[in-house]
Amino acid sequence: MLLFGFNGRATRNFLILLVSMHYILFIDRVNLAAAAPVMQQDLGLSNIALGVAFSAFNYAYAPFQLVGGWFADRFGARRTLTVCGLVWSVTTIATGAVTGLASLFGVRLVLGMGEGATLPAATRAVSKWTPIEKRGTAIGATHAAGRLGAGTAAPIVAFLITWFSWRFSFVAVGLLSTLWAIVWWWYFYEDPRQHPRITSVELAALPATDHATLAGSGPVPWRRLIPRVAPLMIVYFCQGWTGWLFVTWMPSLLQKSYGVEIKKSAFLYMALLFSGFLAELLGGMTTDSLLRRTGNLQTARSRMIAVSWVFAVAGLLPVILFHDMVIGVTGFMVTVFFLGFAISPLWTATMDIAPDYAGTSSSLMNASGAVAGILSPVAFAWILDRTGSWTLPFAVSVGLLLFAIVMTYWIRPDRPIDVVPNVARLAVGGE
Questions:
Q1: 408-419 pLDDT, tens digit each
Q2: I want to staple 373 with a disulfide (CB 3.0 to 4.6 A). Which of 176, 244, 261, 288 is the partner?
Q3: Gap between the Cα atoms of 92 and 84, Å rounded
Q4: How far is residue 326's CA from residue 374's CA, in Å, rounded to a whole number?
Q5: Closest by Cα among 24, 164, 150, 155 to 96
Q6: DSSP states along 190-242
């Protein structure tokens, strides 16, 4: 098991908690997509209205990335993730009570607030609890669990809808979040050195750090941070454009473009996301292996990202050119795999660039992906309504990914932001 590559029970338990969090997080996120065909008919929603409902999540998700990253860097991941878990629970359960577009938009908006703050806070926790040469594996394992959650959400929700109702499906999965939040608050310590079960071997493997930054890193040096993270923000927008289409429209595409019935489409969707699950596991191990073999962060991060996206584009081209279910599913699977393969080097690059501000740096990057998530579902619906083609919208994805490949040249994880001395933190916080 990947998590057993980490020395000591305390570190493994910490990672198991984060793996569980990502699994639950993505079930809460994509359960709407899994239930969308039934909900759309029951609530009388048009394609545009459904696209707006999908996008509602990201209207809050994007800005609350920044809020969550800042809050986690100032006050720690323990408080941030506990509150987030409770927000997922309440809003997911409330989705089972919606009556139309307005209420659905509202609960998805608040869910976006809770989930927006989550991944930056989790990234900060990983940066403090794992050694640099194993961060890719840690990110790969945790993010892959999100893929697994997204993939298994479809059959789980389909089963609950078939045997109960779509409303009950949201209540059932929402209760998991409450349980996770309680366990996280009880187990996690901001400073791993204070954890009662951590061993000296585990502590020796952790990176050298200013202990004063473990609970909170002080004011964020925005003027130095934003230009360094800007290339990551641009390329993550390009990746997020396509990634969010898989999260939102794919179950409907399989049913309405290829004529697949709901149960079979759920399992095909699960297979697509399972390829992403494997990719993120392998991508995490690969970026760590490249770093150990070459000692070059640009090779292990930037160049690996670029190569991954070349293959992602290659997967989309036959989908656009040929209307065939086998070709379509195969092409989508290739694209999902290589989008997932790039995830670990992208997220570890935020920690490489800003070790003391991993929450904020990752939030800037992920917020740009969330902005893509606001635009792409609606753009997909607009192109679909005007052309009748379910695959033509992916032509935009090809263009954006080609642009992103060029932009990876300016990602420089080998040049970290200098640590601000404690005495001067308040004075230079606005830099």
A1: 999 999 888 865
A2: 244
A3: 12
A4: 30
A5: 164
A6: SSGGG-TT--HHHHHHSPP--THHHH---S--HHHHHHHHHHHHHHHHHHHHH
Q: Is 267 or 84 the better-scoring residue by pLDDT?
A: 84
HSE-CB for 40 with a 13 A CA cutoff: 18
- Lowest model confidence (mean pLDDT) among 135-139, 188-192, 198-202, 238-242: 198-202
With 0-12 / 13-18 / 19 or more C-beta atoms within 10 angstroms meaning exposed / middle / buried, residue 4 is exposed
Question: What would the two tokens of residue 180 be?
Answer: 């996770």
Q: Which residue has the tokens 């599913």?
A: 329
Residue 208 is predicted with a pLDDT of 62
Which structural domains are found in the chain, ordered by start? Answer: 11-194+219-417 (1.20.1250.20)
Which ranges constitute the DSSP H helices of 164-199?
Answer: 166-187
The encoded tokens of residue 226 equal: 């934003």
